[in-house]
Amino acid sequence: MDTTDVKPYIPLDPDAMFSELEARLEASGRNFDIGRVRAAYEMAKRAHEGQKRKDGSPYVTHCVAAAQIALDMGLDEDSIVATLLHDIIEDTELTHEDITREFGSTVAELVEGVTKLTRVQYTSKEDEQMENMRKMLLAMAKDIRVILIKIADRLHNMRTMAYQSKEKQRLKSLETMEIYAPLAHRLGMQRAKWELEDLALQYLDPEGYHEITNDIESKLPQLEEFMEATKEKIESGMRSEHITCTVQHRIKHIYSIYRKMYSQKVDLSGVFDLCAFRVIVDSIPDCYNALGVLHYMFKPVPGRFKDYISTPKPNMYQSVHTTVIGSEGIPFEVQIRTWDMHYTAEYGVAAHWKYKIGDTSALKAGDEDKFAWIRRLLETQQESDAGDFIHDLKVDMFADEVFVFSPKGDVINLPNGATPIDFAYSIHSDIGNHMIGAVVNSRIVNLNYVLQNGDIVEIRTSKSAPGPNRDWLNIAKSGSARTKIKQWFKRERRDENVMRGREMLESEFKHNGLSLDLLENEAVYTPLLNKLSLQTVDDLYACIGYGGITATRAAHRLRDEAMHLGTSDRKTAIDKMNEAAERREQQAKREQHAINGILVEGIDNCLVKFSRCCMPVPGDPIVGFITRGQGVSIHRKDCRNYLNQSAGDNEARWIKVSWASQISNVYVTTFTIAARDRSGLVLDIATVLNTLNAKVRTLSARTTVPGEALVVVTLEVKNASDLKYIISRIASIPGVTNVTRAGG
Ligand code: MN
């Protein structure tokens, strides 16, 4: 039991070990192609030529030993072949293709899977992180056999850990305790789990471990005597009731005793139940009959009876447990189960290759069975042969999730198909809102990169990032990321939302033969505003703009409301719709004559130019000035020249003009930024303009008085709303005191 003594240097002979494996493959009575297994051994031996283990043996001895464990676990031929080759991709020149050529793609995939798991960086974390780590390994494995091979590999490495450095012993033992023993448990492999735990414990707490083993050793003669006597007593009791059974006894595994000692704060003399008994019978009714006999023979300890037959554990474990008090007053535990249950308990998932498990009806009973996938597989197995079963044994448990690392090594759990945007928002809204790029496994990726299990993801942020883009709503996979992006738009870009929402609703209205004039009727829109808890029609536009309600839905509600209005109101509404339709028609007619996006009242096809003093853009309130011989010059209504000259001699030369509703031109305008002079000011302004995709024509900066700077920007914009947004962003740059448009 004690394996901490470092055995003297005796190099193992790999050929002798493999001969032994061959003999056991033959003795197993299963249909192995031994020539194929031998070919795998030969390949591994050649590939690892010259490599040595810490105990001085040729490296390939590890591969053979792991393959022996895989055989003991009951794994199939492909798994045993893959176990022999499991370190080839990681540690030798040979590749995935070499393995495919010799042994087929299944074996190559298995080896590749094990290699990926080997490369995962382990760091000790809090419990929740460990659970994610285990899930990630399962998800990465894709095929459950990859995990089983990895467990065989780890078991052999733990058995030979004595040759490693203290630091490596501690790290590997911790990883075994936190990752591999729980995985073995989850897969129902009790035998492997116990051995992993005991091996890990002796490196993690050697003192505690030896305290227990020494104590057991000192009590061994006494314990053996007690166990033999009790076993005989149970056997004769069962015989007299005509129950056919096998009774086993054992000393419990060290780690379970250790946990009991520390969690229940009892010292070893108080741990009576160091030993346990098992009664294995042929049928489920016999389990309960045997329980009756036991409780008749011995006094049961209240509260210690558990029925995992009617309610199996999530990992498929089934048995009845009870604790009774023997004639010497010593309590001991008894597990009662059928042979099928026994194999499942010992070998878990792997039992299905090794034994033919029959009745699984009890498993089907549990609805909240977390291992539904195994249950599904068990059901599949009943209808098909074992070969198909193996192919179906894929880990689809986490098919809709993906697990990635943060740079600090935290495992982040995201929906399958998630992108760096989802990752950023899952860390914090601020990270998402300030994201300017992403790096995955040290390479820059696009924001629509689909994250893969095990990726290490790093998000680049910047204080002056422009914030999320509307495209992100389509790229993000998780609902929470989309919600956060929508919240940002709602908060940060009201003007733009109002404009967008208005456009969206208008085009939706056009579809339905309606006009936005409908929204001049309070009776039409008030019910919808109330329903959405909004105050004004602009709020409604904004709501549509950021995606709080779709334009289609809003349009339908408004139309329905107009239809359901009382007669007079309805008449008004319909009148308004008709008037609006007429106006639209006239407008459309006039717009055919629009020049540079401008309609001049009463004059078609006249020359139109934009004044240089105020440089108006669509959306600005405007007015026209009839020049001498140069057509109409367009000014903003807040232009100094208009305000100064609108009355007096020139009054008659000012005429009404308006923007056409469809404008495809871009407009050039200018604004001036006043700021406290500082280093980096112009760079900051340029960065903001750049991130907003503004088309800058010129940008000039000068110092006016010491400490004061003026920056003049000329750029192309589509409309006043865009311009207003750009100016508001510029105004928020540190040091900027004022932003004014030309001519204002
Ligand atoms: Mn290995």
Strand content: 15-25%
Mean pLDDT: 82
User: How many β strands by DSSP?
Assistant: 21
Q: Can you tell me the CATH class of the largest domain?
A: Mainly Alpha
Question: Could you explain how this protein is built, in words?
Answer:
Mean pLDDT is 82; it is low at 356-397. The chain has 6 domains: 14-203, Hypothetical protein af1432, CATH 1.10.3210; 208-350, 2-Layer Sandwich (Beta Polymerase, domain 2); 369-490, Beta-grasp domain (Ubiquitin-like (UB roll), Roll), CATH 3.10.20.30; 493-591, no CATH class; 598-659, no CATH class; 667-741, Alpha-Beta Plaits, CATH 3.30.70. Helix 24 (494-511) crosses helix 26 (537-545). Strands 1, 2, 3, 4, 5 and 6 form a 6-stranded mixed β-sheet that branches. Helix content is 51%, strand content 15%. A hairpin with a 5-residue loop joins strand 7 (401-405) and strand 8 (411-415). With 744 residues, it is α+β, with helices and mostly antiparallel strands. Manganese (II) ion binds at residues 62, 86-87, 153.
